[in-house]
Each structure stands twice: as C-alpha cells, then as structure tokens.
Design a protein that fits this description.
The protein is mainly alpha-helical. It contains twelve helices and two strands. The protein has two domains: 162 residues, Cytochrome c-like domain (Cytochrome Bc1 Complex, Chain D, domain 2), CATH 1.10.760.10; 118 residues, Cytochrome c-like domain (Cytochrome Bc1 Complex, Chain D, domain 2, Orthogonal Bundle), CATH 1.10.760.
Length: 302
Amino acid sequence: MVSLAVAAVAGACSPRPATTTSSGVPLAGPLIPAATTIVTAWDVPRNPTTDAALAKSPEGRNVQWGFRLFTNTPSEAKQFAPGRMTCAHCHLNAGQRERALPLVAVASVFPEQNVRAGRLYTLNDRIVDCFLRSENATGAGGNHLPQTTSKEVEAIAAYVTWLGRGVKTENNPPWRGQNTIPASAVVPVDALDPRKGEAIYTERCVSCHGADGQGVALGNKKAGPLWGADSWNDGAGAARVYTLAGIIKHTMPFLDPGSLTDEEAQDVAAFINSKPRPSYPLKDRDYRNGRIPADAVYYRRR
Ligand code: HEC
Ligand code: HEC
C-alpha cells in the first residue's frame, strides 16, 4: 500500500536534491554533516511540509503528516507516545543527519532479518519497534498497541520512503550503521564506570539535559528525557550501553560532537542506562534465538 502510494507521489514531484543546508553549510551527500553544531540544529534538507506540490494529493499529505509525526511525536500520536520522546530526538534533523541514525534511503533495505526478533522485518515492523520501545507505546492506560497497519505507522513509512526518492546509493546506504564504537575501543560492560559517567554528564551534558535528565528548553527546542517515566523504555536500542554510546559519541555534546573519547561515551552511556526507565513488558520474547548481548543491561539485571 505505502510503496504504491509513494510511487504515485514521486511521479508527480520528487524532492529536489539540495547541496547546502539553509544556513549554507555544504551537505554530506543528502545529509547534514556530522561535525556541524548548533548552526544546523534546526535544518532539514528535505522538508515535505514546505513542498507545495505534495499538499495537492492525499498521498503527498500523508508524507507531510509522516514528517510531523516524526518531528513532534507526542502531540501527533498521543496514544503511541505516552512519554515525551520524539523520533527526531534520536534521529536528528528529522532523520537527515550523518551519524545520527539517518533514515535517508534506508527504506530500500527492508525487508531485512532482525536479530533481536529473530525474523524478517519490513520497514513498518521496524517503525512499530521504535514506537513500542523508544516511544514506550506498550498499550498502558487503555491505549492500543501500534500495528504495522496503524495510520501513524503508514504515514511515517511514507515519509521515510519519500526521503529516499532520487537518492542514488548502494542497496545498503554507506551512512547506515555508523553510530558505533569501534570494536577495538569497546570496554567490557562490567569495567565501565557509571560514576565517571556521572562526572562527564555533570561537566558536559547537564546544561542542556538538566540534573534530572529531563531536558532544558533551548529556544523552541528541547532534548527528550534521558531517563525516567517519560523516556525510552528498557527494551529500546538506546537502553543498550554500546548502542547509546554510539549515538552519544557522534552527536553529543550538541555544540562539539565527536569530542568525547570512546571510553567517555561508554561511561556516560553506562551512567544514563543505570537510571530507572519504563519497563518493556515483552522482554522475554527478545533474543530467543541467541544469547542476550552483554550491553543489554536491563535484560541482564532482571
Ligand atoms: C531513544 C532513541 C530513539 C527514538 C526516540 C527513536 N529511535 Fe528509531 N532507532 C533508534 C536506534 C538505536 C535504532 C537502531 C539503529 C541501528 O541499528 O544502527 C533505530 C532504528 C530505526 C529504524 C531502522 C534504521 C535502519 O537503518 O535500520 C527506523 C526506520 C527507525 N528507527 C524509525 C524510528 C521512528 C519512526 C521513531 C519514532 C516513532 C523512532 N525511530 C524513534 C533509536 C531511536
Ligand atoms: C548544547 C546543548 C546540549 C548538550 C551540551 C548536550 N546535549 Fe544531548 N541533546 C541536545 C538536544 C537539543 C537534543 C535533541 C536533539 C534534537 O531534537 O534535534 C539532544 C539529544 C540527546 C540524546 C538523544 C535522546 C534524547 O533523549 O533526546 C542523547 C542520548 C543525548 N542528547 C545525550 C547527551 C550527552 C550524553 C551529552 C553530554 C556528553 C549531551 N547530550 C550534551 C542538546 C545538548
């Protein structure tokens, strides 16, 4: 359904490839370069809501809604985002920033085997997973669980698919899977020091994220809660220490990304993931086909 709808939209109006950000910084291919700082914090190279042609068809308007869902999740999809996490809090610049879990041209890699679930995943399956875990949409409070056919999931899939229109890449885009700590720099989880991580947090992170981790307003922007009831749950990718370290290493601190050492990124991730967060109720269904990874600390703590 989605791919047909998007094909119709693309025929009418492919997004125009930009070469610089609105602030004049040269793009890295279709993406905001990883090394830029606050100058590009609000930039979106491809924004469907400013593409007048899209507003003319239901399919195009669905792409636009997908963008709004992605950048303002708790207000646009209340029942699937009971906390305060927005997709773009982790997938920066609406999924269009290098080394910040970019989603440009990622639609075409699905279906793909998912290790945690031990089965083949479509793009919609993957989006549902980020809702269930990163957005903590576990159906509490009488809410429904997100499904691959939920209209919110379809709209976001339409946006993510649209993002790849006209972008020439290998089947697996080279900017995918770059939010990692190199194997040679990985510190065993038990040797990481959350107290060191707390000291780094106090020095480098607290001004924007707050002592309580809940985020401080910066103009009209605010980071999502790093822990607590409104944050991602303990079944999320970001609840894994190395996954979170790989996000932090390349995106934070916002004004100086890449300035933490690999070890500092891991210590601060160990600190953040030593904190309480909502419980994902279906953890026992994960990793059925293999061993629980060492950095899946909330699974090991049970
Ligand atoms: C707390 C951080 C966080 C939030 C919030 C979040 N995600 Fe993710 N997302 C991740 C991580 C971590 C991955 C795994 C990246 C990897 O495997 O390299 C991921 C992966 C994905 C992927 C697959 C990307 C790929 O290359 O395979 C998609 C699609 C996605 N997220 C969509 C969403 C959507 C849609 C939302 C909002 C409903 C969202 N995410 C919210 C952290 C987050
Ligand atoms: C100058 C302000 C600033 C500093 C300093 C900063 N951050 Fe952030 N951080 C942000 C903003 C703003 C976002 C949300 C980005 C967005 O929505 O585009 C964010 C997002 C994040 C996220 C994604 C998940 C979420 O809950 O939003 C993580 C994880 C994170 N920061 C960790 C850190 C860590 C660890 C440090 C210190 C090493 C740090 N940040 C320092 C401003 C900052």
